[in-house]
Amino acid sequence: MARKNTSRTPGGTPATDALIDAGITYTALEYTHRDDATDFGAEVVRETGRDAAQVFKTLIVSAGGRELACAVVPVAGHLDLKAMAVALGVKKTEMAEPAVAERSTGYVVGGVSPVGQKHELPTVIDETAQLFDTVVVSGGRRGLQVELAPDDLAGITQATFAPIGR
Fold this sequence. Notes:
The protein is α+β, with helices and mostly antiparallel strands. The protein is built from 5 helices and 9 strands; from the N terminus they run E-H-E-H-E-E-H-E-H-E-E-E-H-E. The strands form 2 sheets. The protein has a 5-stranded mixed beta sheet, with helices on both faces. It has a 4-stranded antiparallel beta sheet with strand order 1-2-8-7. The radius of gyration is 15 Å and the shape is globular.
């Protein structure tokens, strides 16, 4: 079910609340998450009917030491960890442990949104997002995605665009 949101609704998430507070127009895409689903990106594509190149996943990486960062890449591809390191200006990055990502963001794996995280992280969005009028990212829980303009996503997360996907 898709609907445009401009005011807080029951069942909102920190992500949707942050979008509303910032005055960003988005479309909520809700679907029934299946507990046996392990490929959350494929589930989103299947359930929403959106193009896999337009649906983006949120990944949390360790950027040296205890520093974390957020990567937003198409579900149709993979994160290039070397390119992410270059975008962040660090020597190397690696995927953060799921428990670390959940603690830092306040979201559960499969529902991690780049918006409204408990601790704001440096964020990099794959440059292919700029090819679309809108992109789809997690709305902060499994079964909820938000569709919004890439520039709005970059603005609210203070992200940069870089070639981090492959």
